[in-house]
Every structure is written in C-alpha cells, then in structure tokens.
Write a structure and sequence with these properties.
Pfam families: HI0933_like, HI0933_like_1st
CATH topology of the largest domain: FAD/NAD(P)-binding domain
Radius of gyration: 24 Å
Bound molecules: dihydroflavine-adenine dinucleotide
CATH superfamily of the largest domain: FAD/NAD(P)-binding domain
GO molecular function, one term: oxidoreductase activity
CATH architecture of the largest domain: 3-Layer(bba) Sandwich
Number of helices: 13
EC number: 1.14.13.-
Shape: elongated
Cofactor: FAD
Distance between the termini: 28 Å
Number of strands: 21
InterPro entries: BaiN-like, BaiN-like_dom_sf, FAD/NAD-bd_sf, RsdA/BaiN/AoA(So)-like_dom, RsdA/BaiN/AoA(So)_Rossmann
C-alpha cells in the first residue's frame, strides 16, 4: 500500500471557518493541510455582501443565532468576538465601514478578506490544496484520507465543508454524510436567508410592483419553532418577495405558515386614519397612504384591496378593513427559492454531540465540525461569518 503523507491537522473545506481554523492551528506550530474540491478557496467570501463581504457585526450576540441548542454557540462567540476579527482586519490595513445596524463591510472588495486569510495561512506555513476530492475517511489512531491526489493521514480531522446553499459555488452534503458515517445525528436541513415565492394569483397581483422596496415589520415562526420579528426593508421581486426583512424571517418560517408584514411599522394606522378623516376629510386614501408608502405601492394597494375613497366617506368599518390589509398584511408564501439562492443552510450536525469549547465530537476523538455545517445559523448582517471565525478559532486552538 502506498505511503500516506502525514499531517498533524487536516481541514476539509477552505472557506471562512476552515481557513480561520488553519491559520490558528498553524500559528501554534501544527503542521496543517487544507483540502478543498473547488478550483479556488473562499468562494462564498468572494461573493458575500454583494462583493464587499459583510465580514462581521459589531453587535453580534448569541441572540442572533438559531440552533436547536441555543446555548451551544455562546462559548466560542464569547472567546472570539467581532472586535477580535476587526483587529485582524485593521492589522492588515483593510479599509471598512459600517453600512447599518453594526454591519461591517469592506470598502473595496471581498477579496481583501480572502487575501488576509491566505496571508495569515502562508505565514503559519499552512498547506492548501484545491481541486481535491476526498473519497474515503478511515479512523485508526488518527485518520486516513483517500483522496483524488493520494493518501493523507492526520491526528485531527476538521470538517469545514459548509452548508448546501449555492451548489454551483461548490456546496456539498459531504460534511453531513461524514457526520452520519461516524454515527452523529444531522438535524433536518433547510434553506435560510432566502426569498419567498408566491402562488400564481398573488404574483399576478403584485408583479408590477417588482423593484419596489418599503420598510416593514416582518414576523414569522412560532408554530413548531421560535418566533421573530424584524424591522427592515421588503423588496417585491418578479418571483415573490425579498429584501432584508424577508430574508431574516425566512429562517423562522415553515412551509404552510403565514408571515405577518406590517406595512406601517412606525404608525398606529387606525389612529392616523381617524385623525386624517377629521382633519383632511376631502383627501383620498391613496394620497394619505402615499405619505408613508411609495406612490406605486399605495396605488396598487388601493386598486387591489382598499379602493380609493375620500376619507370623509370612510366608516369605522372601512378603517378596520384598511387595517386588516396593512397592519399586518397576512401573507402565505408558496415556498422559498431554496438552496439555489439561499445565503445559509439551517440545521446540520447536532451540537449536542460536540464540545462547545472545542467543536470536537464527543464520541470520536480528534474529529471536529466547524462553521455552517454545524446546526448554528446566524441572522443576516455579518453574523454567519462571525460564527465561522469563532468556531474556526475554537477548534484551531486545540487541534
Ligand atoms: P463555506 O461555504 O464558506 O466553505 C465551505 C468550503 O468547503 C468551500 O470552499 C467548499 O468548496 C468546500 N467544500 C464543500 N464540500 C466539499 C467537499 N466535498 N470536499 C472538499 N471541499 C468541500 N455571511 C455573512 O456573515 N456576511 C455576508 O455578507 C454573507 N453574504 C453571503 C452571500 C451569499 C450569496 C451567500 C451564499 C452566503 C453569504 N453569507 C454571508 C453566509 C456565509 O458565506 C457562510 O455562512 C459562510 O461562508 C460559512 O462558512 P464555512 O466556512 O462554514 O463554509
């Protein structure tokens, strides 16, 4: 049998978590190899944040994460905070800015973050190989890996292969399959941070609003999982609904459930309507609503649901009807756009089988799972990268 090349640590997956783990372990003097099947490293980092990588969030806390075991992420997040990553970004002279709500983006390109990780890996003498398929993993005292480039062995094996979203960027179910191979439970996976699709009739009603954006308070969940509300923008698209408010609640939504969209999040609409009816009775409803909604949206809403009466002609019952269509607007999406466009995968390797200090598997010593493959999923706004950095760091300190 041919001789294997021996490393202290092999990491499968050269994304955010894998590279952070690699540079951390390399800095400790460990001999580290990173393997990736894609043609280049950090593809999701490169495409993230619209090409500017929202690399962390200054206000990230464990409350920004979904997991079947919400306490699991606390240890790693508290030991590697957004400020630790910001210090690293600053030490590389990378210019950045806060866009909103604590979300930090590169001023230039996401490439800055990939270069940072690669420079750190290079200084720590980490070896990285792309276009490598891992064909088989066997456990002996350590691990033996049969790959498309030959045999490798290691003491510690770290799985950082991410989730299922954007398959054309190299996403695969490898990490889940490997977890099952070693007897671990993988919690049901589903697309998160993903636009909603609508049935044909609703789409026909709303399609000419495609491109219109409006601030809403969007709420979802509460059936078989947690419930959450986000005050952010909603965007009408030619397939359904998107925008940050929708992406956020999509992670809480379950098929068949309705979402609640308050189109007037800053108004007690009933009071506003009654007051306007007294003070400006000749005004038409559409004109009043245009004070808060874009003209196209106010127009379409009146055409579809509300009519365009003069305020003086509206009874209390008419006011109640307006409220029923706007505050909140109850909408039942037909589905989501799925992994094709989702930013993240919810579910994954059950955290109850991992140490929250080190990410090591309790039942298989030397085997670690980090990043998105684990059942920890962040809100939109830099939290997912913060989890990748923190979990990668936690494992990198001990492998
Ligand atoms: P990641 O997916 O980054 O890396 C996994 C690596 O494993 C990849 O390099 C892949 O090729 C490799 N791999 C997979 N299967 C393999 C196999 N069988 N063999 C070998 N290698 C394999 N988050 C955020 O915080 N801010 C943001 O701005 C964005 N923006 C964003 C935009 C878009 C379009 C998407 C799809 C996602 C985001 N995200 C984000 C989410 C963020 O990209 C994601 O949570 C992290 O990249 C997860 O890091 P990981 O290292 O766990 O997986």
């Amino acid at each position: 049998m041919s001789q294997s090349q021996a490393y202290d640590v092999i990491i499968i997956g050269a994304g955010a978590a894998g590279l952070m783990c690699a540079l951390t372990a390399g800095q400790r003097g460990r001999r580290v190899l990173v393997l990736d099947h894609a043609n280049k490293v950090g593809k999701k980092i490169l495409m993230s944040g619209g090409g500017r990588c929202n690399f962390t969030n200054m206000f990230s806390t464990p409350d920004n994460f979904l997991s079947d075991n919400p306490h699991f992420c606390k240890s790693a997040l508290s030991r590697y905070t957004p400020w630790d990553f910001i210090a690293l970004v600053e030490s590389h002279g990378i210019p950045y800015h806060e866009k909103k709500l604590g979300q930090l983006f590169c001023d230039r390109k996401s490439r800055d973050i990939v270069n940072l990780l690669l420079h750190e890996c290079q200084s720590a003498v980490v070896e990285i190989m792309t276009r490598i398929s891992v064909l088989e993993v066997i456990k002996d005292e350590g691990f033996r890996l049969q790959t498309s480039a030959g045999l490798y062995s290691c003491e510690s094996l770290v799985i950082a292969t991410g989730g299922l979203s954007i398959p054309k960027m190299g996403a695969s179910g490898f990490g889940y399959d490997l977890a099952r191979q070693f007897g671990l439970t993988v919690l049901e996976t589903r697309a998160g941070l993903v636009p909603f699709t609508l049935d044909e009739r609703k789409l026909r009603d709303l399609s000419d609003l495609s491109g219109v954006s409006t601030e809403v308070e969007a709420c979802a969940g509460g059936g078989s999982g947690p419930h959450a509300c986000f005050r952010e923008n909603l965007l009408f698209t030619h397939r359904g609904l998107s925008g940050p408010a929708i992406l956020q609640v999509s992670s809480y939504w379950r098929p068949g459930e309705a979402v609640e969209l308050d189109l007037f999040p800053a108004q007690a609409l009933a009071d506003t309507l009654k007051q306007a009816r007294r003070e400006t009775p000749r005004l038409r409803l559409k004109s009043l609503l245009s004070n808060w909604l874009s003209r196209r949206l106010a127009e379409r809403w009146c055409e579809l649901y509300l009519g365009n009466p003069r305020l003086a002609d509206m009874s209390d019952k008419d006011v109640e009807d307006v409220i029923a269509y706007c505050q909140p607007w109850q909408l039942r999406p037909s589905g989501t756009e799925g992994y094709r466009t989702a930013e993240v995968t919810l579910g994954g390797v059950d955290t109850r089988q991992l140490s929250s200090q080190t990410m090591e598997c309790r039942s298989v010593s030397g085997l670690y799972f980090i990043g998105e493959v684990v059942d920890v999923t962040g809100h939109l706004g830099g939290h997912n990268f913060q989890w990748a950095w923190a979990s990668g760091r936690a494992a990198g300190e001990v492998v």
